[in-house]
Amino acid sequence: MKIVKVGAEVSIKRDIDTGTEQQREAVEAIIAQVKEQGDQALFELTKKFDGAELTSLRVTEEELEGAYAKIDEELISALREAMVNIKDFHERQKRQSWMTTKEDGTILGQKVTPLNSVGVYVPGGKAAYPSSIMMNVIPAQVAGVERIVMVSPAGADGMLPASVLVTAKELGVKEIYKVGGAQAVAALAFGTDSIQSVDKITGPGNIYVALAKRAVFGTVDIDMIAGPSEIVVLADKTANSRYIAADLLSQAEHDEQASAVLVTTSQELAEQVAKEVQEQLTTLPKREIAGSSIRDYGVIYVARDFVEAVDVVNQLAPEHLEILTEEPMNVIGRIRHAGAIFVGPYSSEPVGDYFAGPNHVLPTNGTARFSSPLNVDDFTKKSSIISYSKQAMEENGRKISALARLEGLEAHARAIDIRLEEK
């Protein structure tokens, strides 16, 4: 890893992949085909891209039950415990509707309503992602969303991975469809004979999924367009270099564009971590991916003092931040920008990915400056409530109509004045 002194500006921002012109055109064509041909397009595109020749898109109850025989009981137990932890955390995020009454009889309030329906995209292909299901489905359930639809690409055998099916079954997801890619996003947005459209689409995917989500935004809501994963470790001389190296590599193995950064005040620790990363890399199964990430986007910043080190972290606004200092709890208050903050030597980032409870769908590429992890609020909408009394109208009506006329909206003003004329 590169070791550099902190300069005037630091960054882990990478160019957001907006796809090539050819990819964007391909996604537009897929969306148009699904809108025009519905299920027929889904069958054809699933065969073309996934090699699966399906006669039905919906996962059956028999498929769900059969998946249990393929999963170890201990793993199922771990999944169930993780679900409890995730649900407990998100239950604490719930907001209540409220109303307040003023002395003049005015009633003001806010009504919190869950979305009617949400589509959850679960990546497929070479790997299975049960954690992605939990992190998207559970906050929607806690919010009170009645209809949750899951889509995921089938393998060449026309099946979804057993771990994906078991996780969905454990969570009580009723609608699961064997379709992926841009065509799945289009189906969720516009509907087909088999798949009724939804109000919002969440969940990660490849560049075609990301482009499709971007294209359908406005017809439906989406969670975010996430970039490559990233981690920043803030450490002092007391930190364990082996722990840090392992945690940096845990993100580097995600993607060649993933970013792994150490910010420290210790030159000695910087050198130890750089050495340890190279040693651990040699035995990593995904060493080619991780090695490319470390080479191109891995860096160790050595700060002059801790104030400068914290400033670097806030400039980076990382997706994941680990604080490995002598007194890490004293540092939290200084951190302004981070998607998730992991405190202390045993709070390794994978703890949050899978088990602790907070959501692992996090803002990337510096967007933690203004956005938050996926949460219960993302699955609700809010309506303002205004009940004005006659007394309030008499006291404030002329002010309201004056403000309307200030903006040249005479009809607005007259809608108030006509009420003031009543005896």
UniProtKB/TrEMBL annotation:
CDD domains in the record: Histidinol_dh
Top-level taxon: Bacteria
A Pfam family assignment: Histidinol_dh
Protein family: Belongs to the histidinol dehydrogenase family.
Originating species: Halalkalibacter okhensis
Binding annotation for Zn(2+): 251, 254, 353, 412
Essential cofactor(s): Zn(2+)
CC terms in the record's Gene Ontology section: cytosol
Sample GO molecular function, one term: histidinol dehydrogenase activity
Positions of substrate binding: 229, 251, 254, 320, 353, 407, 412
Catalytic activity reported: L-histidinol + 2 NAD(+) + H2O = L-histidine + 2 NADH + 3 H(+)
NCBIfam families, sorted: hisD
Gene: hisD
Enzyme Commission number(s) of this protein: 1.1.1.23
Name of the protein in question: Histidinol dehydrogenase
Native organism taxonomy: Bacteria, Bacillati, Bacillota, Bacilli, Bacillales
UniProt remark on cofactor binding: Binds 1 zinc ion per subunit.
